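Key result, reporting period 2: structure in, sequence out.
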């Protein structure tokens, strides 16, 4: 992604959100648009594919707080008109020193291939302006591939324990014909004769001296004389590929896992982007989860609550016996230590068992007689504070 893109493209408009929209709403908007325009849902529709790429590019910036901050700063700075040709600059009539300046000069216009400032950030842009042609960290080269995203649903037990699953993607991948270099089989890219393989050329603009992407090779540093017939010289094609992905134990619903270098391949041998996997965890019929603790609700009878009992409850790897003390109220939580979700440090959360005292809707005559005898021999619940209020308002 070039720094020029950051200035000219309105990523907020691409995602249909306002500049003040919070991060979680931007994420929701991106997911909705990505699902609608995903190539798998729109086979053979090039407009949908371009829309998907645009949405992914916008979210790559706005979905990262640091990049979003830089993007907003750059848009604000250049949007003010301070660097446009024709604006009053130092050195124009009535002002001392300096030269007119046009932001398009930073990128060499449309013919420069859009520029390739590797970081895409405002710091890379200004280091290129004031580097005096040194190349620096923002030096062009084969463009890094875009990050891609996908979603996977895991069973509750697999998410807690960890699992390795095959993940099938239809996304850009390295061209098998040219192995990513963009050249026709039997040929090789050659060093650019203009920049001699550096990917940049030096340029003076009045008082400024800076590097810009080589216009002859678009900043790649090499030239392909005979393009690969499969990828047309880009080094990548859209294809179906399968990856074996390891999901660590304890992965949570909504978690985002980054697989470095598994995204879209870079153009003509450039580094690949990253693959981000959004995890959805299917709910379990018995267990819930709070952080590293598992939760379970167990019904008990009135007599078990009054007299106490030993309660056998399931865990993810067997069963444990918990002691219900006499006089246990409904809603009390018992804890089975170490029977929850395992952490990376080898420790584990707990199993939290909530007791639910069940009151039968119907009882036999014998049971009713026994309960009436129980009631006669049991002191009433302490309700004096309630009775006092009833007398005042009654």
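The corresponding designed sequence is given below.
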């Amino acid at each position: 992604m070039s720094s020029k893109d950051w200035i000219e493209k309105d990523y907020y408009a691409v995602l249909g959100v306002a500049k003040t929209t919070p991060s979680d709403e931007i994420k929701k908007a991106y997911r909705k648009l990505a699902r609608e325009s995903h190539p798998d849902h729109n086979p053979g529709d090039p407009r949908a594919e371009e829309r998907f790429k645009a949405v992914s590019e916008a979210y790559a910036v706005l979905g990262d707080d640091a990049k979003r901050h830089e993007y907003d700063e750059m848009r604000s700075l250049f949007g003010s008109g301070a660097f446009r040709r024709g604006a009053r600059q130092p050195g124009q009539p009535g002002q001392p020193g300096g030269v007119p300046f046009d932001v398009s000069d930073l990128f060499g216009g449309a013919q420069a291939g859009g520029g390739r400032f590797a970081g895409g950030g405002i710091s890379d842009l200004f280091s290129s302006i004031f580097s005096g042609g040194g190349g620096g960290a923002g030096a062009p080269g084969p463009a890094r591939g875009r990050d891609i995203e996908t979603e996977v649903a895991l069973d509750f037990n697999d998410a807690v324990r960890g699992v390795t699953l095959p993940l099938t993607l239809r996304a850009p991948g390295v061209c098998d014909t040219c192995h990513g270099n963009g050249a026709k089989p039997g040929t090789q890219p050659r060093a650019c004769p203009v920049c001699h393989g550096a990917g940049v050329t030096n340029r003076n603009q009045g008082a400024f001296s800076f590097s810009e992407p080589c216009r002859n090779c678009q900043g790649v540093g090499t030239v392909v004389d005979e393009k690969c017939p499969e990828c047309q010289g880009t080094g990548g094609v859209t294809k179906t590929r399968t990856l074996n992905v390891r999901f660590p134990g304890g992965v949570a619903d909504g978690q985002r896992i980054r697989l470095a270098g598994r995204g879209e391949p870079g153009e003509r041998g450039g580094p690949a982007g990253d693959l981000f996997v959004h995890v959805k965890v299917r709910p379990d019929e018995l267990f819930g989860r709070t952080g590293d603790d598992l939760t379970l609700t167990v019904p008990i009878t009135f007599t078990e609550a009054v007299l106490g009992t030993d309660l056998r409850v399931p865990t993810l790897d067997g069963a444990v016996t918990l002691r219900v003390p006499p006089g246990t109220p409904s809603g009390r939580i018992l804890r089975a230590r170490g029977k929850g979700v395992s952490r990376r440090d080898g420790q584990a959360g707990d199993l939290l068992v909530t007791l639910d005292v069940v009151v039968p809707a119907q009882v036999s005559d014998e049971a009713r007689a026994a309960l009436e005898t129980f009631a006669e021999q049991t002191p009433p619940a302490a309700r004096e504070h309630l009775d006092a209020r009833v007398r005042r308002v009654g």
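The chain is about 25% helix and 25% strand. Confidence is low (pLDDT under 50) at residues 80-121, 126-139. This case is discussed further under Risks and Mitigation.
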